[in-house]
């Protein structure tokens, strides 16, 4: 399809053009869902897929993955029946059973942060029940809780932190003990059975390749009516706007006087405008910022923020589960994700921590480095992150595990520029030869000090690489 206005349409219809931009933004998370599910197209609906090993540099299915937890997930389909989840006893660690609707809204969590117990939980879909999230059921109920989904289709994602290679075996045992079975309901079928092959089919055309923008809009046409917004008050105007954008009866036909290319540009521009709105990004000091809980995990009516996260960090948890503070150089405005930095072949980036990041019960933290493709960096140590479970040292050589708190550093330096032995435990290798990198500071189960300005976030400094020939004259 021609995306310009000049060849086919001599004038732009502003109302339809605005509607098309919104439709693209609204439906983009469906495209992100498709990218994820196509990598696991052989996994049936309502069946577990267990990631058995921690993610390494050869993993390419999702950008900016974490190297802290093992995942178990289900592409759930509640069209014909509800689902009963059995939560095994999971001890001495962070764990979360997170539920996402089709648009990656994290509308419910069961886990260690809320001191939830092992047992049975019901995942339910009822289009007449507009109260979404977890309802803790009474003592006489068969279930410890009922989770009501706003859409019949979605994703269940379990995260379980891993301490080390030996501990991974225990986490694999927890995965094996997870169970899911169908649970009959009196209402019967409430939607068509979910055929995930739709994400393959929308990319096919006898006329040639289908653009990403048109795939987004085809998916929106096919799925939006069955999977409405979780914000009930928005549903009517969304339906009207989607129809103006050419979406009707499950099909997309581009309206006259519109440009897909301009619609995508307008949608992307509105993302930046949302991030820069007052109150959306909170400064934390030393160039670090934190995204408001309004645009973290469960997005409600912030469709532009939902679009942003679907592009760059799909399946983000809510802020009570985790935060991702972002650092920006003084010359760059916050964009909600974090700065990309160029590191030279003989340069390093030094993170000078004032103390350990603060976490609540069962929480953990880590710093992860990504290459220009937003994937983990291949390196000689097979080390992709450093954090509370790592063998980090204080400047005097004492392990962080052996002292309650104090200043310490993490050194990001190219893989082919090996630092002196005293820095090895605190070295996070960047790409050999340098290049474009970015990083995530993850804090799961964050304490209030991490967001109220109490904790002093690390200073980030670009320095000459530290080598046996060139040592730092002083260390914090």
Structural account:
The structure is a single chain. With 476 residues, the protein is of the alpha+beta class. The chain folds into 3 domains: 14-36 and 200-272, no CATH class; 42-183, Immunoglobulin-like (Sandwich); 278-464, Domain of unknown function DUF1214, C-terminal domain (Jelly Rolls). It is built from 7 helices and 24 strands. Strands 1-2-9-4-5 form a 5-stranded antiparallel sheet, with helices on one face. Strands 7-8-6-3-10 form a 5-stranded mixed sheet, with no helix packed on it. A hairpin with an 8-residue loop joins strand 7 and strand 8. Helix 1 (14-38) crosses helix 6. The longest helix has 25 residues, at 14-38. The model is unreliable at 1-9 (pLDDT under 50). Residues 46-180 form the DUF1254 domain. This is DUF1254 domain-containing protein. It comes from Penicillium subrubescens.
